Structure formats: structure tokens, C-alpha cells
Description:
The protein has eight helices and no strands. By secondary structure, the chain is an all-alpha fold.
Amino acid sequence: xxxxxxxxxxxxxxxxxxxxxxxxxxxxxxxxxxxxxxxxxxxxxxxxxxxxxxxxxxxxxxxxxxxxxxxxxxxxxxxxxxxxxxxxxxxxxxxxxxxxxxxxxxxxxxxxxxxxxxxxxxxxxxxxxxxxxxxxxxxxxxxxxxx
Length: 147
């Protein structure tokens, strides 16, 4: 792969989600038609992307959360790309962090990894699917206990 434009910025999942949500609202208000094949393809891509991102933690983030995340990550010596991956994926284990942080074994101690996991859990909202599944699991367990 080749870098086409070195001055382009990387977007977080939150930024993409927000952009597509705003674009969808603008299209609703303007009442644009779905006449052309290209327009239908674009609508499909927007729909599928929004559907995917709405199930990810980014759907519950806000500019304030992102700013707080970046502020708390300042003392960790991570690259912009690593911070972006942490923001997008919200890792919950040391293994996940090792996959996202290059040479994490040399750069981070076990204590720093645990601190990073705790910071991510405190600052970033959780996975909506996991949190929705948790009450359902509790209800099933309670129903099984009552039987």
C-alpha cells in the first residue's frame, strides 16, 4: 500500500459515526431522491456503516469523552495511531492492548497495561451490545433460579 496524501488525518469511529448521522439527517431534511445507481450504492454504504458503528462503543461517545480520553492518554507514551485504535476498540484485556500497541512488551510494564485498561474502562463508554446482553443474561439466570 502506498500513502497517497501524507497530510490527511485519521478519523475515529466516533467521527465517522457522527459525520454519517449528520449527513443522513441532512438528506432527510432535503428530501433527496434515490434515482441514480450511484446514489443507491452510497445509501447502502451509509446504511451498512451506520448499522455496524451503532453497535460499537463509538455510538455512545461524545466530543467531551474523546477529549477526556486524549487528555488522560497524554502521560502514556503512545503514538496517535495507537491512541486511535484504543479509542475505537476499547480493549479490555492485556492481550488486546498487545495487539494494538506496537512492541508493548518492551514499552509497557504489566502495571502500565493494567492502568491503561482501567483508564479505558473509566473514561470510555462500554460496548452497547455487551451491556444490553448483560441484563438479558441476568434475567435468564434469575428465571432459572426461580424454576
